[in-house]
Each structure stands twice: as C-alpha cells, then as structure tokens.
Amino acid sequence: MEIVVCVKQVPATAEVDLVVDDSGRGIESQGLVQEMNEWDEYAIEEALLIKERLGGTVTAITMGGEGVDAVLRRCLAKGADNAIWLKDEAFEGSDAYATAKVLHAAIRGLEYDLVFTGAQSGDDNYSAVGGILAELLGLAHAQMVKKVEVGEGTLVVNRELEGGLEETLELPMPALLAIQTGLNEPRYVSIMGIRKARKKEITVKGLGDLGLTGGEVGEAGSWMKVQRVYAPPVEKEPEILTGSPEEVAGRLVEVFRSRGLI
C-alpha cells in the first residue's frame, strides 16, 4: 500500500495575541511557535497504521520556505519512509488552488494507492486543498473522514456531516481522503525516531523540477487574493450588573421588559 500524506506547518495561535503585519494582509509570524497542522497529525498517523497492517510505504510531502522541513522530520521520526519538500520563492502567496496545483505536480509522478490530507489547516481553515487536489489527480475523494477500512481495491469510509451525523461511503482506489481529527490517537515521537530522522534524506523540488511556470503558482496563479486582514470591530460592550441580588434582579426585569421579553 503506497500512501502519500500532504502535511503543513502552521503557527500555534491558540493562546496568542495576534498582530496584523505591515502589509495588512497577514499576521506577524515572528515569535510564533511553528508546529504541524493538527489535522495532518491524524492523517500521518492513519497512513502509518495502514502501512503497519498491510505493508507498503508512506511518503510525506509539504510546501513552504525555510523551516517547514521540520514537519517532514517529524513525519520521518514517526515512521514515514520518504519526504518531499516543495521549496521555491515562486510558491509564496499561493491560495488553495495554486497550492493544490503544486502538490498535484509533485504527486502525479509518484506511485500511490491513497493520498491523505488534513480536513483543514489551522491557519486559514478553508478546507479546500484536498478537494481541489483530488479533482486535479482525477481521484474519488471524501472530506471530513472519521474512519477508514481498506479492502481489495476499495475503501469504506465514514465521514462527518453537520449536526453530529455521519455517512458511510464506498470508494474505489486510488482515492484521496481529507482526514478529520479524532480518527485515531497520534503517536508520540521517540528519541530514537528523531535520531533516525536526522539521517534520512529529504527530496527538495522547486518550480522547474515540477514542470510549472511562475504564472501558475503564487499570487499570479491564485484565484483568490487576500485584500485585508483585520480584527472585527467591537459593536456592543457587555453591561455588568452590580449591587445586591434584589437590585440585580430588578435591573434584569427592566431590561427584559424594554426588549419585549416579558
């Protein structure tokens, strides 16, 4: 079973006060901790579990500038066999479509039975790359996948729907699956795995290696361009009621009456 997993490095922003950068079109990344996208952790884990059951190889692939190879080293430390780093200044500013084109150019020449992506990324949350990549590769695909069962030339997958519902689909292979969190329990990276990963080669490919032109990637090759990033304005301030319980209750009654609630 040959599996390709697309992974991404994103800034950790859960408990950080974000600042818009000088361009007004992004956030200031200096000082932010960079980590593997959460959804991709589950994608690489599922690929490794399938490999351990059925044999084969796992190839991790990422796109970005200096430092993003750390996510590839993490994948190798977990047990991935190969790693491909798509690195070129021309890729900067790529939207989901341009990113999918770059990934497609890198993957189309590989042997694969399955291609995994995360269901979304923690920085933009577009959930678009997986579907576009599947279309470019001509593969059947499923989004928000919560369970994978590999059969003889087919897959049975459960995917998450709105309202807590799930549906079961049967797909032919090869196929692309966009993996949702909770599918498995991602393994920790061992010290021995880290040491082995340092010695493994990462294949680096640029624009020319992929047979693409500058007009197909980056902002020039993107369908969507970010015009402005900003914090939404505060339109209403909360009113905090103080005083004795009787005073607070009386004030609440007045508010409810003024709004026609009682």
What fraction strand? 15-25%
**What's the overall geometry?**
globular
CATH superfamily: HUPs
CATH topology: Rossmann fold
Largest sheet properties: 9 strands, mixed
Termini distance? 65 Å
Total helical elements: 6
Overview of the structural elements:
The chain is of the alpha/beta class and 262 residues long. The chain has one domain (2-216): HUPs (Rossmann fold). Helix content is 27%, strand content 23%. It has 6 helices and 11 strands. It has helices at 38-54, 69-78, 96-107, 129-137, 191-199, 245-258; strands at 2-6, 9-11, 34-36, 57-63, 82-86, 114-118, 140-150, 154-160, 166-172, 175-179, 203-205. The chain has a 9-stranded mixed sheet, sandwiched between helices. Strands 2-3 form a two-stranded antiparallel ribbon. A hairpin with a 3-residue loop joins β7 and β8. α3 (96-107) packs across α4. The longest helix is centred in the N-terminal third of the chain and has 17 residues, at 38-54. It is globular and about 70 Å long. The mean pLDDT is 93.
Layout: helices, strands, pairs:
Blueprint: E1 2-6, E2 9-11, E3 34-36, H1 38-54, E4 57-63, H2 69-78, E5 82-86, H3 96-107, E6 114-118, H4 129-137, E7 140-150, E8 154-160, E9 166-172, E10 175-179, H5 191-199, E11 203-205, H6 245-258
Parallel strand pairs: 1-4, 1-6, 4-5, 5-11, 6-10, 7-10
Antiparallel strand pairs: 2-3, 7-8, 8-9
Helix pairs in contact: 2-5, 3-4
How do you describe this structure in short?
The chain is an alpha/beta fold and about 260 residues long. About 25% of the residues lie in helices and about 25% in strands.
